[in-house]
Amino acid sequence: MAVGNPSKALSPYICSSCSRSLKLRSRKFATAASPDIYDVVCVGGGPAGLSLLTALRSSKATSHLSLALVESQDLDRAQKWHLPPDQYSNRASSLTPSSQSFLSQIGAWSHIDTSRVQPYQHMRVWDGLSSTSRISFDSPAPEPAIAHMTENQNIIRALLARLDSLEPISLLDKTSITDIHLGPPPSSPAPEHASLNLSSYPHVTLSSKHTIAARLLVGADGLNSPVRTFAGIQTRGWDYDRHGVVATLKLSSESSHNPENPRGVTAYQRFLPTGPIALLALPGPYASLVWTTTPTQAARLKSLNIEDFIATVNAAFRLSVVDLDYMFTLSSGQLSELQWRESVSPNTSAEANGDIPAYVTSVQESSIASFPLRLRHASSYTTHRTALIGDAAHTIHPLAGQGLNMGLADSKSLASAVEYAITHGADTGSEMNCLDKYNIDMWMRNNRLLGAVDKLHWLYSVKSGPVVPFRGVGLRAVDALGDLGLKRWFMRQAGGL
Amino acid sequence: MAYASASRRLLNLPPSQRVTFFTSTRGFSVLNRPPPNYEGHVPLNVFERGALAAGSAVMSLLNPRRGDLIAALGETTATPYFIYRLRDAMLCNPTGRRILRDRPRITSKSMSVEKLRALPENTVGQAYMDWLDREGVSPDTRDSVKYIDNEECAYVMQRYRESHDFYHALTGLPVFVEGEVALKAFEFANTLLPMTGLSLFAVTRMKPAERSRFWHTYLPWAIGNGLKSKEVINVYWEEELERDVADLRAELGLERPPDLRDTRKTLREQRKTAKEKSEKMSGLMADSP
Question: Which residues of A touch B2 (CB under 8 A)?
Fold first, then answer.
């Protein structure tokens, strides 16, 4: 239901009699040219945008706000998204406990299809250049899991289902933005029946030729955010010259991440000099692959036949970097190379300890894809009446699996800033009274995380020299000092435990 | 309390993680020597390895003909790092990988004399045969590797040792100390095996003329060629026998050093004629009244 009436949108701030008169006036003077005014217009219906709207709707203080969502994709399809239990989307994320608790707090977690969620209790991370440098994380006793793996589509569907169960918002899907501009300056001298002064309100012109005005415009519209461009916010960062190769894999049945395994489920990550390769458990014998590598190696991986692709993935967790580099020079025959190297130097003990993942046996059809990796950070998340959340505000290297979690944390923080402003009678679009709180809350935190992950990337892309043994000693030291709470501190930083 | 438990954890680490720079040598006492990793393998602990290296180094310097001691020195100093580096150099190269897969051995059986003699002039096989004839040695004079723990690295050492004669043939350097030291210098620059570098101490045993020849001619040749040529360990000699030797040298980026035997022969003749001359002169002087 579109809330097209300014009086309704303004009702929380204006006494009922004024509001009534406003209603009369607007009824009298409303023309086709005057835009619909919303309290919050969110551009982008990804996890960040949807969770923000859900959080606003499900909080008592903000549930009455008029909300609009502009999304270019068909949200109906996202809502009806369904895959059989033996198929998984290749875009999956690891939800940290704090993200999970946020989703339960806004009532979305109960709509998640839990049969497609895989909690994991252990993590094994090691250095590709010195196999003895490894670190293991285990979920501390009161926590049932380090994190939960699930498909992004599952999260989106749950958020949409939760939104559906609440007071409706204006869903403007299959709609793109043609322009964002500020409202017209107030006509002066103000006539007696002047309309609202909307000169500071962002006006969004949609592909349907319709224009909507926003008290607060939220950009959750990704890397090339039009909202960010409108707000004139600079971003800084660089491209990594790396691609992330993703795929949905099936592991052998004696899989160590089998949910029935009493030892629990393990996530694996090996830092190769070209970038980390991670295998994250999905339910059953399935797993999600995220392999960060150079564009040439990524292209090679995608060009291999399935058998050799599987062999290369298995090799990436088992063989030396020298062998792996050689395998990338071949256009086929990786399987025979793997078999030969495994017969010369078997990994039997690592296999038995669960230090390396079980063998990949098959790849889900057409699930192999790749995307370029970047680091971007907006210089600020807010200007007057605009706020950026999620990828529009920051893009992170996937090695710590933090991208989606950071977006959800943004939503949580922005929703609470809006809630605070509403309960204190402040303008939600005002930087000083509302948005600064969000910017202060999240910018530095995200900047630290972006920086830390970036440094890890550079640290582990060093191939030789004194850095290699030092980082090995460092990793082992952190592992050995786990009892002192250092590891728990790292996990708290990464997972918000 | 927490610190105590942390230090206990450090000490409880498996030995393989505690001794990080000697990943190949697990600590053990002589009373419970682990089983061999391959046929003929003799597992040594760090102290035994060190003692054997020092002993064989001293003794082989005193007696350079002791090939067994030089072999022991080569094996005990190849770990850590060096033999792994050489193995990785082979793993990086398609031919090197094929050698590691096939693991060919150079013996008088695989290198049959009849077959080699039948090869045309200027082939690698013929050069090898000529060299064997000239030096009076046979391919079977090589010991088996026994002190290297990693089975694949043991093969790499074996391969280096068996290919050594081909390096002689390729460069034309003879087996006596002067030629051997020049070739070892080349091998050190090319393979980085510490034994080949340590062998250069044999320079101290050379005559002044030989020594100056080494410093001024053969060492510069060895370092220059060893560094700029491709890794000679990656030559599949069994497949190159029929190849033109100059062609192979060009492919490896290797120049032939001045022929040491010829040089020595001419110098010897020069010396002889000079001596004869001076004798004649002194005879003439004596004869004259």
Answer: 483-485
Q: Residue A15 forms beta bridges with which residues?
A: none
Cα-flanking dihedrals φ and ψ of residue A372, to 5°? -75, 150
Residue A270's DSSP bridge partners are: A126, A277
The b-or-e profile of A457-485 (16+ CB within 10 A means b, else e) is beebbeeeeebbeebbeebbeebbbbbee
What pLDDT shows up at residue A155? Answer: 96
Structural domains for chain A: 6-86+156-237+376-455 (3.50.50.60), 116-150+241-372+468-495 (3.30.9.10)
- Is B180 annotated to bind a ligand? Reply is yes
Neighbour tally for B242: CB within 10 Å: 11
Q: Which of A427, A372, A381 is nearest to A406 (CA)?
A: A381
Interstrand relation of A211-219 and A286-293 (parallel, antiparallel or unpaired): unpaired
A326/B3 touch (CB, cutoff 8 Å), yes or no: no
Please name which of A146, A145, A162 lies closest in space to residue A154, comparing C-alpha atoms.
A162
Backbone angles phi and psi of A169, in degrees to 5? -115, 170
Within 8 A of B9 by CB-CB distance, chain A residues are 480, 482-483
A326, A344, A480: residue with CB nearest B9: A480
CB contact under 8 A, B5 and A326: no
Cis-peptide, bond into residue A189, ω within 30° of zero:
yes
Tell me, what's the pLDDT at A204?
A: 94
Residue B168 labeled ligand binder: yes
Residue of B nearest to A132 (CA): B17
Of A492 and A10, more confident: A492
Look at B2 and A484 and tell me if their CB atoms are within 8 Å. Answer: yes
- Nearest residue to B176 via CA among B151, B206, B204: B206
Contacts of B13 (CB under 8 A, 6+ apart): A480
Indicate if ipTM > 0.85.
no
- Smallest CA-to-CA distance from A252 within A298, A317, A304 is with A317
Amino acid A485 reads: G
Structure-token pair, residue B134: 């000239």
The answer to whether B202 touches B182, Cβ cutoff 8 Å, is no
Q: Which CA distances in Å does A11 have to A18, A217, A323, B247?
A: 9, 19, 68, 91
Low-confidence ranges of chain B (pLDDT < 70): 1-27, 286-289
pLDDT mean over A297-317: 94
**Which of B9, B91, B152 lies closest to A322 in CB terms?**
B91
The pLDDT value recorded for residue A72 is 93
CB contact under 8 A, A132 and B17: yes
Helical segments of chain B, H only: 2-12, 15-18, 46-62, 67-78, 82-91, 94-102, 113-117, 124-135, 151-171, 177-191, 194-198, 208-213, 219-228, 237-240, 245-252, 260-287
Does the pLDDT at position A393 exceed 90?
yes
Cβ neighbors of B143 (< 8 A, separation 6 or more) are B67, B68, B71, B161
Q: Is A206 left (phi over 0), alpha (psi -120 to 50) or beta?
A: beta
**pLDDT recorded at residue A8:** 52
Mean pLDDT value across chain B: 82
For residues A369 and B46, the model is more confident at A369
* Closest Cα in chain B to A483: B6
Show the tokens assigned to A470.
Answer: 């030092």
